[in-house]
Specification:
The complex is a heterodimer of chains A (338) and B (289). By secondary structure, chain A is mainly alpha-helical. Chain A contains 14 helices and 2 strands, in the order αααββααααααααααα. Chain A is flat. Chain B contains 12 helices and no strands. Chain B is flat. Chain B starts with a helix and ends with a helix. The chains are: A mainly alpha (338), B mainly alpha (289). The interface between A and B is large, with 100 and 95 residues.
Amino acid sequence: MNSSRGRSVADVALQERALIAPATGSRAKVLDRLRLGDAAFRQLTRAAAIGVLVLLSAVIISLIRGSIPALKTFGFGFLFSERWNPVTEIFGALPAVYGTVITSFIAMLFAVPIGLMIAFFLTELCPQWLRRPIGIAIELLAGIPSIIYGIWGLFVFAPFLQETLQPFLIDTLGNLPFIGPVFGGPPYGIGMLTAGLILAIMVLPFITSISRDVFEAVPPVLKEAAYGIGCTKWEVTRNVVLPYARVGVIGGIMLALGRALGETMAVTFVIGNAHRISASLLAPGTTISATIANEFTEAVGDLYTSALIALGLILFVITFIVLAIARYLLLRIERRIG
Amino acid sequence: MAGQMAEQFLQSRYRRRQRRNTLATTLALAATALGLGWLVLILGVLLWQGFSGLSLAVFTEMTPPPGSAGGLLNPIVGSLMLTALAIVIGTPIGILAGTYMAEYGRYDLLTTVVRFINDILLSAPSIVVGLFIYEIMVAPMGHFSGFAGGVALAVLVIPVVVRTTEDMLTLVPNALREAATSIGLPRSLAITRICYRAARAGMVTGVLLAVARISGETAPLLFTSLNNQFWSTNLNAPISSLPVVIFQFALSPYKDWQALAWTGALIITMAVLALSITARALVATGKQS
């Protein structure tokens, strides 16, 4: 379509040179056509841009519409009920929400310090020629599909934890007062802790690459001044770089949190899909996304389906808020750097 | 604060600072080793488990019933079809939207809002996209279908393409646009003929990244395209796909199904890594020229 239009422009130029007078009529026509095409293209791109907004609204509206039967039946109690029984058709979101929050919390607990330390290594310690390869390798971790983490977690990581870390935790921390129950029970291998650790590996690259970018954006003058008065590398990063890059780092962490909350396949493999809230982190649990993935195709009855969609709505609202905060913070730091 | 510390120079204090620095440096090294080690570990296990099952039969035979030999032909073909469909639907919309944001309304309120929303869609949970497509396509049509799966993946393609298209068009120097306008090219032609050409490497990268993103996606396919253990290229019916087959086979109790799942996982990972490395190389060469 475009190529024919382009040829017509050239044709006009040729015609003009050959016969000037008769060409004026067709020249006006061609210009009209170009003007029309121009306006059409502009409107087309505009429509596509608005389409992105429509897409998001459509997702929200369809989720709300789908969850109305469940929300009508259970009301706000849906959020706070611990029971999930497809047979008697009584559904409550609490175990899934609890599992989602706890696994993401475990993930952040490990991924944030490790991710920041890698960013520290990449910006201050690593020799220049190694920075790019190591950076890319860490980012490749983000490129591996989540189902791969799932299958790896189920067949390699969970058995490994079952034989090593979990018995160790049960024997040591499990006997302590107060925090004992958190590490109690038999070592299943699969469970909340395993899911959290897998999530930690998955979101690590997000924290690392964003922290590295904002660390690198710190004005060299500030760092040079700190080095000039004799600060060590750690002190420069801890007292100069980190405070300056704080907003961006928090944005990166929120972005990673948004990912962890919504992650489905990796968690589904290793969480155990048990609808209950256990004190122990080693016990099987479930998350919102794992529940949907496991049960949606087998859900019989409108109420069951609707309850699962309502879970999806809760997940979407939570991640939307977290991601919106992340983007807002990153936008702020972009403006400051930009 | 750091300045004061330097002033009160005391030997013990100095030593403590050195020790702390050494500790932090060691921890940073350990963290990096952990991150890299994990990548090696995952890829190593994949190769170890998947490579032994890799044979010609994987690419020429159907998924078997439990207990007999077979391959992954139907899920591979299904995955290729779904990915192609998603790219065909998602890329034009993404490129057009990105074009508006970079060319027509770079400083518009609309652009700011779309950019914000698009960035959220970029990391929105993919399982929710599956639910959305189930609601608007599978439920009204009354059956699972390859079309629904393709559209679900297209929803994931759009934000990736929008983002890269906008970024790459923004990098095109304004002098090119001015030159195009000065010879009387209409805006639409200046964009499609000049700017798209200048930003081509980057835009192709965006599409490659989108392919890499969706080719491993499982969650949005679980209840849109479902699965099909027989040979089928009918997009209006349930269709098989690699990620869903891996999911099903890995969780099954049968040893040969699990072995096939590992082989499938190896194929997907290699494809995705090859795509993202190609994309990076493209960006790198685009920057140099």
